[in-house]
């Protein structure tokens, strides 16, 4: 993590000022939240529509901060503590992170995409971690605040850092890429997330492609080669080092065989037809993420044996096809972290492919931020659910009613139900589910569908 004197920090933030009395004060790490601040931290007070972190500077010092930033336009600056005066505390945080990144020898892997970026981040870190000292984005710190904090948490001895980059509008990925200056930039895919803000899949592709803006001059760009929207943008670019992954044999990396098994997914890759990779994740769609991770591992000269080891010991961020074995004999696939039409279809197809279970129950909730076509997208999900492969469909939320309306046209009476109350849904689910059954949970983050798991325990 960032360990510097205030004089060093002042040099890293253009236009900032400090009282020379405090120039030798050493800071160890950076925090923007007094609830989690640690002794020795530099506190960065951020300002939003409904909060102002400058009001908590005294509290930050009381909890162990040794210095703080202070925006010059904020009144009543304390006079008895070490402060660095800056024009804007958020911009200063970003400038500090960028300056620190340029001082490090760490190689940065930047990952974005509509779906799968967190799982891909976890895979890359696991594969590289078999050989190198690696850090990765913690939790979901992937925005204009989270990425700077991720960079500032890097240890000086870290050899590779895997940095997830998220966005909701144009210009955001460009900012993050420019801050991180990745050695490798990856786009996992182009889906429908953020259609409400970006208007079309073309707009989403344009926004995601911004990740190349900060790519090192000799850096490697890895992308989903089956996506025409990305192909077109690559052709118009001046990128010199490019690799692709996908299902089609025109890609640099593509699967020869995929087998979804009870304990995970096994697959082979064109580069090594006699080697089988196995990962403790369920679903063919995760193989695309794995191919991107393999491309990065080869860039870093990780051999096949270490790649296989990395997949076997893979630990992914919670609520990404997380398998939960309940004491009552019911299995739950908790994939409730987020959802788009692309990832919803993949999850339902996975549930349909699984064998060895008495009943298969899909619990699906609203997919958010889909714009004017949101009901159409939900209807299309309802139309694709196969009653020959899935036994029950329980929906939660106003938009998800459209899933139920379409699915009920083909399912037996009572096997498709729509809810607006999680307690009622969980109560009915307990009557349906028995030992040997499997349940899928899938919805956008705002629906908090995972709460149904705790309700089942009551």
UniProtKB/TrEMBL annotation:
* Gene it is expressed from: murF
Q: What does this protein do?
A: Involved in cell wall formation. Catalyzes the final step in the synthesis of UDP-N-acetylmuramoyl-pentapeptide, the precursor of murein.
UniProt entry keywords in alphabetical sequence: ATP-binding, Cell cycle, Cell division, Cell shape, Cell wall biogenesis/degradation, Cytoplasm, Ligase, Nucleotide-binding, Peptidoglycan synthesis
Per the record, its GO cellular-component terms are:
cytoplasm
Q: Note whether Metal-binding occurs among the keywords.
A: no
Per UniProt, subcellular location reads as: Cytoplasm
User: Which lineage?
Assistant: Bacteria, Bacillati, Bacillota, Bacilli, Bacillales
EC number(s) for this protein?
6.3.2.10
Give the top-rank taxon of the lineage listed in the UniProt record for this protein: Bacteria
Query: Know the name of this protein?
Result: UDP-N-acetylmuramoyl-tripeptide--D-alanyl-D-alanine ligase
Is Cytoplasm set as a keyword in this record?
Answer: yes
């Amino acid at each position: 993590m960032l360990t510097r004197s205030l004089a060093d920090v002042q040099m890293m933030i253009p236009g900032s000022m400090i009282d020379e009395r405090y120039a030798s004060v050493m800071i160890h790490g950076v925090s923007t939240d007094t609830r989690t601040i640690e002794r020795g931290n530099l506190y960065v007070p951020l300002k939003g529509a409904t909060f102002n972190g400058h009001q908590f500077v005294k509290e930050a010092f009381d909890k162990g901060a040794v210095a703080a930033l202070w925006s010059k336009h904020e009144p009543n600056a304390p006079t008895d503590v070490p402060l660095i005066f800056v024009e804007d505390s958020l911009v200063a945080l970003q400038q500090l992170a960028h300056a620190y990144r340029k001082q490090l020898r760490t190689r940065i892997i930047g990952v974005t995409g509509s779906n799968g970026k967190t799982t891909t981040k976890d895979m890359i870190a696991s594969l590289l971690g078999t050989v190198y000292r690696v850090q990765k984005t913690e939790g979901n710190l992937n925005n204009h605040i989270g990425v700077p904090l991720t960079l500032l948490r890097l240890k000086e001895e870290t050899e590779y850092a895997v940095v997830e980059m998220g966005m909701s509008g144009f210009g955001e990925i460009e900012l993050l890429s420019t801050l991180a200056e990745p050695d490798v930039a990856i786009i996992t895919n182009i889906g429908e997330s953020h259609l409400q803000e970006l208007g079309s899949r073309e707009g989403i592709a344009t926004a995601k492609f911004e990740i190349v803006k900060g790519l090192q001059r000799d850096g490697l760009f890895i992308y989903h080669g089956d996506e025409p929207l990305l192909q077109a943008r690559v052709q118009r670019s001046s990128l010199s080092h490019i690799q692709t992954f996908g299902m089609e044999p025109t890609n640099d990396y593509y699967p020869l065989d995929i087998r979804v098994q009870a304990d995970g997914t096994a697959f082979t890759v064109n580069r090594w037809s006699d080697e089988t990779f196995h990962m403790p994740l369920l679903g063919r769609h995760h193989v695309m993420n794995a191919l991107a991770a393999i491309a990065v591992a080869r860039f870093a000269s990780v051999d096949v044996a270490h790649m296989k080891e990395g997949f076997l010991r893979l630990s992914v961020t919670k609520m990404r096809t997380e398998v939960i074995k309940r004491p009552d004999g019911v299995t739950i696939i908790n994939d409730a972290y987020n959802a788009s039409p692309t990832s919803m279809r993949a999850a339902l197809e996975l549930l349909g492919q699984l064998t060895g279970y008495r009943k298969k129950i899909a619990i699906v909730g609203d997919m958010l931020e889909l714009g004017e076509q949101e009901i159409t997208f939900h209807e299309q999900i309802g139309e694709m659910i196969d009653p020959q492969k899935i036994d029950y469909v329980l929906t939660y939320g106003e938009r998800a009613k459209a899933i139920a309306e379409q699915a009920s046209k083909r399912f037996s009476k009572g096997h498709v139900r729509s809810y607006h109350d999680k307690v009622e849904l969980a109560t009915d689910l307990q009557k349906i589910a028995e030992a040997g059954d499997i349940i899928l949970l899938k919805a956008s983050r705002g629906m908090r569908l995972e709460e149904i798991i705790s309700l089942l325990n009551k």
